Amino acid sequence: MESKAKVSYTNDVLSVHLSGRLDAANAPALSDELTKYKGKPIKNMVFFAKDLEYISSAGIRVIVFAKQRIGENATIYLIGAPETVLDVIRMTGLANFMVIQDSY
Q: What CATH number should be reported for the domain holding residue 30?
């Protein structure tokens, strides 16, 4: 599956729709895209992951970067992630600072 990330910003919510793989090959491009929103008031940062098949440490770093540099006061949501992705999120401890739900 081709990797895609679509980012949008509406009403203080930064939405990131992920599909395919979030790994070293495409994480830098997503990080660059997210950087464009630095300085905007972001209340919620929502990662829609229903179609995400795999996340690597590089993908984890993008989420951590987004929280630290773009939305430090934002609530981070992970929506609809498959169990394989959730396993990685839980193993890394990332689940401790995000809200994991089936829908937003």
A: 3.30.750.24
User: Which residue shows structure tokens 């300085």?
Assistant: 39
Q: State the CB neighbour count (10 A cutoff) for residue 94.
A: 18
Sign, Cα dihedral of 101, 10, 50, 57: negative
Pick from 104, 44, 30, 35: nearest CA to 73: 44
Q: How far is the C-alpha of 75 from the C-alpha of 33, rounded, in Å?
A: 19
d(CA 4, CA 103): 20
The pLDDT of residue 3 is: 73
Q: Based on the structure, what is the number of domains in the chain?
A: 1
Cβ distance 36 to 5 under 8 Å?
Answer: no
Domain extent at residue 81: 4-101
Average pLDDT per 10 consecutive residues for the chain, totaling 104 residues: 85 96 95 94 97 95 92 93 96 93 94
**Residues contacting 65, CB < 8 A, separation 6+:** 31, 34
In the block, tokens 């098949």 appear at 53
